[in-house]
Amino acid sequence: MSVITSSAQTETPSLAKRLGANLQTYGLIGAIILIWLFFTFTTGGIFLSARNISFLFRQMSITGIMSVGMLLVIVTGNIDLSVGRLAGFVSVIVAMCQMQLWPRLIPQLFPGQDPLDFVIVTTLLSVVIGLVVGTLFGIYQGYIIAHLRVPAFIVTLGGLWALQGAILIVTGGQTISARQEAFLSIANGYLPTWAGALLAAGVTVFLFASMVLTRRRKLKYGFELPSMVLDVLKTGVFAAAFVFYVYVVNQYNGVQSPVLILAIVAMVVNYVSNNTRFGRYAYAIGGNREAARLSGVNIRNNLFMIFVLMGFLCGVAGVVLASYVGGGTPAAGTGMELDVIAACILGGASTLGGEGTILGAMIGALIMATLTNGLQLMNIPNEWQYLIKALVLILAVYADVRLRRNR
Amino acid sequence: MPPVSIPAGRACRDNFGEFGKQGLPDEQQRARRRKPSVHIKDTQFMSDNANEIILDIKNVTKRFPGVTALNDVSFQIRRGEIHGLCGENGAGKSTLMKILCGVYPFGSYEGSILYNGRELQLEGSSIRQAIKEGIAIVYQELTLVGNMTVGENIYLGKEPVENGAINWEKLYSGTQNILTKYRLDIQPQALIKRMGVGKQQMTEIAKALSEDAQVLILDEPTSALSEAEIDKLMEILSTLKEHGVTCIYITHKIGEFFRIADSITVMRDGKIVTTEPTQALSSEKLVSLMVGRAMKERFPKGNRHPGDVIFEVENLHALPPEHTDREVLKGVTFDLRKGEILGIAGLMGSGRTELVMTLFGEYGKITQGTVKLEGRQLSIRNSREAMMQGISLVPEDRKRHGLILIQTILKNISLPNLDQFSSWMQIDAEAELNASNQFAKSLAIKTPTLQAKVDSLSGGNQQKVVISKWLMSRPKILIMDDPTRGIDVGAKYEIYKLMNDLAEQGISIIMISSELEEVLGMSDRIMVMCEGHSAGTLDIADATEEKIMALATGVAALSAGANADASTTVSSIA
Predict the structure, then answer these.
(1) Is A355 on the interface with B (CB under 8 A)?
(2) Which residues, in sequence order, are CB contacts of A368 under 8 Å at separation 6+?
(3) Residues A168 and A275 in one domain
């Protein structure tokens, strides 16, 4: 180890070093901006139209919700291959409830009354059932992985196949459509524009308030403060991005409901992963499982809960999926896990575990959705879309590996 | 330079030990030597070649941003000698070795290095090139593939291929040749992961030699070896010397220099302090040159007054976690008093680590026997329960079991202790920072900030992080498994002082160590393990190296807890 003299202990790290810690995140943001500019240019501006941005963010919400759960799974050094099909299965179940369960049950329980009177309640119940189904599957997989110690890769691969079969059994190969207005509004609804504006204002205030509070706390503990200019700039950029987003979507119809769901989910899980013991243990398990075990971390419980959470979030995603599509299709959710995993990895999660952030996963999900959307707008055929996505993913991870080596 | 004369019959290094610089009279030497005496002819060969300088390091300076790792370093290494390199962590030893191995290529440093008379010009990231040139290094952490055999590892990357397929006969016969030539006692077909650390290391050395290494650098080779294996290593190095291989020997165990090295270079803070023949130096002088100050004693005097017995283990039997009927603990009995340091000695494989891991709840299954803390019987199923009861374990392998290297110091220290400052909803970040800071300061962890990643710290500081983490859980009993392994002299002293302080405060310490000097220097009592059971406990007043070894090898047996002279009872232990 190099000699660190006592004077070096009070030396402020260079600017590059300070930024370097967040270089990855900034790099991602830079990448998104570049990609957006690229597509704006190649689509003659259509990409940046309010309608398209609204559509884009709505499209990313389903994989986004699953990415939030997947990030924690990857952080512990595991993987879940069943998420796409689980969301699909949930969407099918929910559609079934809407189309087949309630219409039969209500007349039996409440004869003489118009089923449509119960629409809100039944929709809510369908949602709850969807969440429960997802969670139950998560419990099942979590138990086998955490308590029976079967590798997650195998368990979730098996889960993927099992769900595939289950979907076909339940749907009989047919699409079950579910188009009640209340139900559709889950994924296709909007926040009124004034509410959106209020939200934008609220978030801005919140961001600046936490910046001030963090600075005050650092001062209290004798940490040297980053320059005020840099802090304001950083907070300002995030706030501005959010305000810009609200502004743009308000032009169209307002903040989309599934994006709201995604935002809430992401913020809650982000808080948990950063500020609770549960989150801390997850990172420890991924960072060095043996050391975590010998430090009193209950690995079984932690892993179990992470897969239960994943199942729950697949339930959420499945509900949104059903609402978005207007029913449950036999092919629902096929291949989504790849987008979800790619989003997490693009966002900086390490395949070995122990590293990764929710924010990164969100940006990764946005990049994946952008690619899909932009390429579609450019009328590039489906086959080529796959290739280009693969190329982007590999280049991005390669760049990350190089950066890490030189750090 | 006048030829260095090597007296007849002393072509290989002998264990001078306590007999001083002159060495034993020739008669006794020949009797002690385990090999046949060397002919005059060979000695002459040695003394002619001893003239040649194989490595001439001239004014080498290596700078990093903010730090000068090597500052105008100059010294010479003679062909065929065993050259010791000595210095605290941070002195610049590994930087210099990295230059020799090609990690830092020619051009990334100032000054010049002449190898066999020619300038050493290694290209970037060209460890392969250095190996081709004949410079090989055997690291402290072994780089073998556990699932492969000795032969496969030695020929890894250069398997003899014929018509696209590996010629296994050639591979294994080549392996046997190397092993025979250098008198390495391992089977070419043996699987690495089934071998003890000592033999694994022999494989590493064989691997280096298979590339016709002229210079073999050994970095802390004995940190994981038992005394018997260390003796074996010394023999091997003597054999290498006979074959004209030059060795650079880096270690923190001062005594080893006097067993094996011909000359020693001392480094401090990136500079050369001196290069002298071993005969001109002594342990004390070496240590004071290393640290720049005289160190009165290696082991600080403690002021401990052990109290009553608080921990009792009686007739403990345990099975290992793998499905097998062979017990790993076959009857361990000992007790521990409040505020005492109990040393646990024993050969490698005697079950010391398994014992403490079992007590900690993270290894194997107890089938028989009792464990009592303060009179209450304990049943500990995992590390969490052990912690709750007040037992903490600083593991043997700090990088694999004690630390999460990619995380910060702060997070490492607080990990087992998060309950102290969290509700189920939130970790109180400020309380966490405060508490961790407190411990980091009281252990004097050298770091600019707690947010630094642990893998950037030196071995000694990493060990302090592990200790801090367990001190924060306020243990009654602190178990330390080989706590000063791979740590330089200065940091070792700090840890010894820390142990004394903790014991004085009433914490009982169980210390496993493979260094007999350490066990004798620090313990109040010594429990010796032999082949899975406790062979006996010695009071420090009566303990000697011989008694410990007698118990550890099963030559003598003591009834549990009794103090007896080891030589009086001789019985065979299975």
Answers:
(1) yes
(2) A60, A63, A339, A342, A343, A346, A389
(3) yes
Asked if A284 and B404 come within 8 Å (Cβ–Cβ), the reply is: yes
Q: What is the pLDDT of residues B6-38, one digit of tens each?
A: 344 333 333 333 333 444 445 444 444 444 443
Interface predicted TM-score (ipTM) over 0.85: no
CATH number for domain B297-390+476-574, candidates 3.40.50.300, 1.10.3720.10, 3.90.226.10, 3.40.980.20: 3.40.50.300
Chain A, residues 180-219, CB within 8 A of chain B, namely 217
Residues of B in contact with A280 (CB under 8 A): 411, 415, 418, 427
Q: Measured between beta carbons, which residues in chain A are less than 8 angstroms from residue B426?
A: 275-276
Q: Encode B35-70 in three state secondary structure.
A: CCCCCHHHHHHHHHHCCCEEEEEEEEEEEECCEEEE
Dist. CA B24–CA B41, nearest whole Å: 22
Same domain, A158 and A28: yes
Task: Give domain status of residue A17, yes or no.
Answer: no
What residues of chain B score a pLDDT lower than 50?
A: 1-25, 27-50, 559-574
The verdict on a CB contact (< 8 Å) between B427 and A280 is yes
Residues A178 and A250 in one domain: no
A297 contact residues in B (CB cutoff 8 A): 415-416
By CA distance, what is A223's nearest residue in B? B449
pLDDT in tens, B392-404: 999 988 888 999 9
Q: With DSSP H G I counted as helix, E B as strand and the rest as coil, what are the percentages for chain B, rounded to 5?
A: 35, 25, 40
- Asked whether residue A245 falls in the same domain as residue A348, the answer is no
What is the C-alpha separation between B460 and B464, in angstroms, rounded? 6
Range of the domain at A201: 191-255
Task: Write down which residue in A255, A285, A305 finishes a domain.
Answer: A255
Highest mean pLDDT among A178-182, A197-201, B10-14, B523-527: B523-527
State how many domains chain A has. 2
pTM, rounded to two decimals: 0.74
Confidence of residue A224 (pLDDT cuts 50, 70, 90): low
Query: Contact at 8 Å (CB) between B255 and B378?
Result: no
Q: Is A2–B69 a contact, with Cβ atoms under 8 angstroms apart? A: yes
Please report whether residue A139 resides in a domain: yes
Phi, psi of A273 (to 5 degrees): -70, -25
- Alpha-carbon distance values, A365 to A58, B66, B339 (Å): 12, 40, 57
Assigned domain for A2 exists: no
Residue B323 contacts by C-beta under 8 Å, 6 or more apart in sequence?
none
Same-domain status, A134 and A222: no
Chain B residues lying within 8 Å of A287, measured CB to CB = 404-407
Q: Which residue of B has its CA nearest to A220?
A: B430
To the nearest 10°, report the CA torsion of A245, A248, A253, A256: -20
CA A142, A145, A150 angle in degrees (round to 5)? 160
Q: Is residue A3 part of a domain?
A: no
Radius of gyration for chain B, computed over Cα atoms and rounded to the nearest angstrom: 25
Q: Cβ A288–B400 below 8 Å, yes or no?
A: yes
Cross-chain Cβ contact A294/B425 below 8 Å: no
Give the span between the Cα atoms of B428 and A338, in whole angstroms.
37
Residue B333 carries which DSSP code?
Answer: E
The alpha helices in A276-381, defined as continuous H runs, are 277-287, 289-293, 299-325, 336-346, 358-377
* The Cα angle at residue A37 between residues A32 and A42, in degrees rounded to 5: 125
Both A287 and A401 in one domain: the answer is yes
Mark yes or no for CB contact B458/A1 under 8 Å.
yes
Whether residues A302 and A171 share a domain: the answer is yes
The answer to whether residue A16 neighbours chain B at the CB level (below 8 Å) is no
Nearest CB among A2, A220, A287 relative to B404 is that of A287
How many Å apart are CA A271 and CA B85, to the nearest integer? 51
B383 with B360: CB under 8 angstroms? yes
For residues A295 and A333, state if they share a domain.
yes
